Amino acid sequence: MKVCLTCSAGGHFTEMLKITESIRDHDYFFITYYDRTKEGLKGVYFLGYNDLSNDKLDKSVKLVISFLQIIRILSREKPAVIITMGGSLISILVCFIGKAMGSKIVFIESLACITNPSASGKIIYPIADLFLVQWEPLVKKYGGKARYMGKLI
Amino acid sequence: MTIGLSVKFDRLVKEMDRIAAGLDEKVVMQIGYTDYVPKNAEYFSFMPLDEIENFYRLARVVVCHAGIGTIMTAMKYSKQIVLVPRFKRYGEVHNDHQLEIATEFEKEGIAVIVRDIRDLDKAIRNISDCHVNESIERFKQGNKLINGLKEYLMDVESENTARARY
Fold first, then answer.
1. Please, is B135 exposed, middle or buried when counting C-beta atoms within 10 Å of its C-beta (0-12, 13-18, 19+)?
2. B71 CA to chain A: closest CA distance, Å?
3. Which of A14, A36, A85 is the best substitution to test chain B (most B C-beta atoms within 10 A)?
4. What's chain B look like in SS3?
5. Is some CB atom of chain A closer than 8 A to the CB atom of B149?
6. Nearest residue of A to residue B46 by CA position?
7. Is the CB of residue B40 less than 8 Å from the CB of residue B27?
8. What is the pLDDT of residues B102-140, one digit of tens each?
9. Is some CB atom of chain B closer than 8 A to the CB atom of A112?
10. pLDDT-derived band of residue B163, with 50, 70 and 90 as boundaries?
11. What is the ipTM of this complex?
């Protein structure tokens, strides 16, 4: 079965690498932003435009380009499940496009979110098939679908 | 010592450099975009993940900002951890979530927080000499998330195979 992992760079990506332990039996790939620590990693699609990049392209143009890139990647890979930690616009895009294309959506709230739901969590919550938080008090903040099963350590 | 992928962290790098002069242990610093140039320790800006993990593996203590990625990597190797949260009032971060994160890990007995940078020296000298952080080991044993995720993926797979059959 094919699994897609998507998130922003930095801490979320480290958490994502931890998730790969649970998906070793499956075929998986990443969609994320580029940064120099990720050089040489295999099975990673980098979206063309980085959140932090300072080029002259307009934000909405970047968004359209990313949108098309994601559609191309997902129609080529056809993942059965998309796992995300949120943390950026790309993870939200990937989840909504993936959901429309028939993938199951798994959202795992970052370990960094302790008492308050994240922005991406709130957006993805309605379409998530499995919604996990890493601190118990957050279950109540989200509602019935959220579950606590421990931490990604 | 590491400050992660985000913006510069002069306050920590400067103080760690000062302390390094008086320590009889080797200090290696990842300083990212920090302007200050360390004089008493080996340092670099960035490095690929697998190479940087080597430093974690060899360390006795990991001194770092309270970024989740950094904490997780230090926990992966069950290290003694000293957290120096970035503060909004110094313009090091846009809100004080690092202090919130650090406080939770301190409650679990996993890390020591340095709230005032002048306490860093003492924290490094006082931390356990043990090469394995026992609290982290205990924490890892109670973890069900990875298995829960595995089971979910297995369910989806068998559902998909069943659907393909009929």
1. middle
2. 9
3. A14
4. CECCCCCCCHHHHHHHHHHHCCCCCCCEEECCCCCCCCCCCEEECCCCHHHHHHHHHHCCEEEECCCHHHHHHHHHCCCEEEECCCCHHHCCCCCCHHHHHHHHHHHCCCEEECCCHHHHHHHHHHCCCCCCCHHHHHHHHCCCHHHHHHHHHHHHHHHHHHHHHC
5. yes
6. A37
7. yes
8. 998 998 889 999 999 999 999 999 998 888 888 888 887
9. yes
10. confident
11. 0.86
Q: Using CB atoms within 10 Å of the CB of residue B53, give its burial: 0 to 12 exposed, 13 to 18 middle, 19+ buried.
A: middle
pLDDT in tens, B36-84: 999 999 999 999 888 999 999 999 999 999 998 899 899 999 999 999 9
Q: CA-to-CA distance for B43 and B28, rounded, in angstroms?
A: 6
Q: How many CB atoms lie within 10 A of CB B91?
A: 10
pLDDT confidence of B19, banded at 50, 70, 90?
A: very high
Confidence of residue A101 (pLDDT cuts 50, 70, 90): very high
Residue whose structure tokens are 């709130």: A122
Of the partner residues B70, B139, B149, the one whose CB lies closest to the CB of residue A22:
B149
Q: Cα–Cα distance between A125 and A143 in angstroms, integer?
A: 10
Model-level pTM?
Answer: 0.72
